[in-house]
Amino acid sequence: MATLNYFPCTATLSHPPSRPTFPKPPSHRLQISSSIPEKKNTDIETNSNSQPKVDRRNMLLGLGSGGLYGAANLVINPRDSSATPIQAPVLDSCGVATNLNNNKELDINCCPPTTDRIVDYRVPPVFQMKMRPSAHRVSPEYIFKYNMAIDRMKRLPKDDPRNFFQQANIHCAYCNGAYKQQEGQDGPDPSKFLQVHNSWLFFPFHRWYLYFYERILGKLINDPTFALPFWNWDNPKGMTIPPMFLDERSALYDKKRNKDSMPPAVVDLGLTDIKDPLQLVTNNLTIMYSEMIRGNADVYGFMGKAYRQGDAPNQGPGSVERGSHTCVHWWVGDPNQPTREDLGNFYSAGRDPLFYCHHANVDRMWTLWQYFIPSNKVPDKRITDPDFLNASFLFYDENAQLVRVTVQDCLDNLRMGYEFERIDLPWLDYRPPAQTVGARVRRANTKSAQPNTVFPLKLDQIVRVLVQKTKKGKADEVLVLEDMEVDTSKLLKFDVFVNDEDDNVFELDKAAYLGTYAQLPHKSGTNSTVKTSISLKLTDLYKDMDNIDDDETVLVTLVPRNQGGGVTIGNIKIIEAPPPANKPAA
Ligand code: C2O
């Protein structure tokens, strides 16, 4: 196992670990990169619900030259017709959110309080770095403070946007169809749902969400250094629900959780439903290795696919989102609740304090991927597309001020003022053992369906498909599952194996395991069915299989985990890996 970054320190609030013990982040991190495209068209304007917008740059200018709005009336940019980032929702137009249960629609009201005043948010200068601790390693003092902060959040007036349930509703509104996409000046388009999952918005949205949540908690206990704990489910020592969430008298407790997932149950990042703790741990480490290192052909494979104004939601989730992230939600959610509340459904997930601890680790995965995984192990790490960088969201900050934030302002956790306790990353080199495949594939050839006759393929049982490689002997290839129709009202989960040798679908710690698609029930459109796609890098898998270069086809095995149903795959193909793009200058 790798022992990189192991520092046996205990993070407490009173004694933050000192900087010098940690590896220095790359030097570019604290600078604002000049290559990030300028923000467009956010100058002073009045939008359809007459909420005045204030451009952040004008605020900066104004502050520098003696007046907050000193430069505000200088320019009104015409809207750039090619720029189509997802825009922050208009709160006044927030409608009912929908939870689907066996195709019965259940309406939920989770709209936030509205206000006329929106401020474009500027990340304050960082004077003291917050240290997010591993939830299994915190001190009793830390737990006491955290509990007190959540308790106070629950006691805030119901209509205070910082109230615990208002905070939980943020997730519901952004994820269950309460908001529609803004169409330029014309206001929201009722047919286009705003959805922050299953695309490149996933990491940025949740980062901002936790950022303000953390600041609100800090304010409530008068401790600006307060930092959320992360549930370290990627490390064997963190693979149970952190103890602080289990005390029934604590504000951190939530009774809507799966009884079978209480410690010592080991988290099942693959939802394979096995009980052997050792196999679960090895599966989990393999999954993390696959999501973080092995399975992504390009930056979108990790981050999620592009999602712009006008697009249908669910363009395609990134590896962590559609894998470990979703599985933890489902694993904790209570199977005895109608739709697996709380964590097992987007509309209710934020009602369990454990949600924010889970997502702190998801956020940590993004940081690790950006700054700690050697760049020769993964593809390019940056998205420079202005539609990504200029996408925006609304949140209430710790002072109950409604603020607009952009993706480009959340790309660097250090600039936002927090970092993570350094913990061993045992998955970093958790490469499965190589396998010999030749004979097995020949056997499989004879009993497998031919691709052109099986599509569209309904995934209600284990299926095997032969897929043509691009060019004989060419190793840099990507497996694409496209035109996937997914039923968003259900939990969906299936695993993908290539040239599987032993057909044991409960062991993921083998070369044949390629990746996962998993999704929680949510609402993404007027229909419950949406189209999506995923791409999985084959390069490293090929390296771990003997003789595969000589084959013209590979055998793809798809294993549904959710009692089947809900997924129809339009096509499976193998393409050449995309050339490295956006390579940052060394
Ligand atoms: Cu917004 Cu883990 O979900």
Secondary-structure map with pairings?
Elements: E1 45-46, E2 52-53, H1 56-64, E3 97-101, E4 104-108, E5 118-120, E6 130-132, H2 140-155, H3 164-175, E7 180-182, E8 188-193, H4 202-220, H5 277-294, H6 299-303, H7 319-332, H8 346-349, H9 354-371, H10 386-389, E9 392-396, E10 402-406, E11 418-420, E12 435-436, H11 438-447, H12 451-454, E13 457-458, E14 463-468, E15 477-487, E16 492-498, E17 513-519, E18 529-537, H13 539-543, E19 545-546, E20 553-560, E21 567-569, E22 571-576
Parallel strand pairs: 5-10, 6-11, 12-19
Antiparallel strand pairs: 1-2, 3-4, 7-8, 9-10, 13-21, 14-20, 15-18, 15-21, 15-22, 16-17, 16-20
CU-O-CU linkage (C2O) binds at residues 171, 175, 197, 206, 325, 329, 346, 349, 359.
